[in-house]
Amino acid sequence: MIYTVELLITNKKNVRDPEGDTIHKHLILRRGYKCVRKVRAGKYFVFEVEANDSEEALRIVREMSFKLRLYNPIVHHIEVRLRG
Amino acid sequence: MAKIAILKFPGTNCDYDVLWAIKSVGNLDAEIVWYKDFSVKGWDAIIIPGGFSYGDWLRAGAIAARTRAVERIAEAVSQGVPVLGICNGFQILIEAELLPGALLLNDSGKFVCRWIRLKIEKPKGPWLLLAYDGQEVDMPVAHAEGRYYVEDYIQIEALPKIKYLDGWNPNGSAYNIAGIGSSDGLVLGLMPHPERAAEPILVPRGFSTGGSIVFKSISKALKSGW
């Protein structure tokens, strides 16, 4: 089976994200969306993974992302999830 | 004569500047080595110069850091071979976990290219052999991802460091960190470009040849130890 797995990468809470901050301050708040309290910009990948089940596909992506440093564990927070 | 490898990746563009500085300021022999042809054997020191390896995709230095060539560099370090990373070379050493911390997008979100003033702290090892603690040096920076980050200063407190002087931090680096070394100083990485500040002809009015100390240091270290 081919599973579609997404990887979302954002800076950790305590690591400044100037792009997200600028979008928030100079676009979103300025144009009146006061209800939006915080913005984080990040990176997004989609993988098509051949695996026996969805759990295995997620595991492969988690392991690969860490081993090959698709994200940097020192500064990044990640989310790995199935699409659809 | 001691021989230095200057490692070239697709996108490296400061290799000839470094070669020039090594030869003219350091009086050492050096060779530019394509990353696929790199082996540990025979090199007295290794430099990873600046540029945009793999187009800075993923993160600056992240793809180069996972090549066999960089695995071999880690091996060379364990055998006591000095390694210097300049700018993108520093980003590669950080991404390869050969130096602590992380390098993030500049606070401004933009590429910054200008001369800055620096201070050397706790110099150690072959690359800073001739520097003294607190020595001030000038060099230019040219990067988009140079904002140094470390979770806790304790992690780097004892290490050799190159810091931006107060008011000269161009990217929002934590603790004004511009460069950092391993505890024995065998591995050194820095965002500023010593090869662009090694000779008077390259230096604008009001600044000095702050980069020459690196090339003179490695030259002396390889000739008479450190």
State the gist of this model.
Chain A is α+β, with helices and mostly antiparallel strands and 84 residues long. Chain A contains 2 helices and 3 strands.
Summary tags:
heterodimer, A: 84 residues, three-stranded antiparallel β-sheet, B: 226 residues, alpha/beta, two-stranded antiparallel sheet, 4 helices
Give structural notes:
The complex is a heterodimer of chains A (84) and B (226). By secondary structure, chain A is α+β, with helices and mostly antiparallel strands. Chain A is built from two helices and three strands, in the order E-H-E-H-E. Chain A has helices at 18-29, 54-67, and strands at 2-11, 42-50, 76-82. A three-stranded antiparallel beta sheet of chain A has the order 2-1-3, with helices on one face. The longest helix of chain A has 14 residues, at 54-67. Chain A is elongated, with a radius of gyration of 16 Å. The model of chain A has no long low-confidence stretch (mean pLDDT 96). By secondary structure, chain B is of the alpha/beta class. Chain B has a single domain (3-223), classed as Rossmann fold (3-Layer(aba) Sandwich). Chain B is 19% helix and 25% strand. Chain B contains four helices and eleven strands, in the order E-H-E-E-H-E-H-E-E-E-E-E-E-E-H. A nine-stranded mixed beta sheet of chain B has the order 2-1-3-4-11-10-9-6-7, sandwiched between helices. Classes of the chains: A alpha+beta (84), B alpha/beta (226).
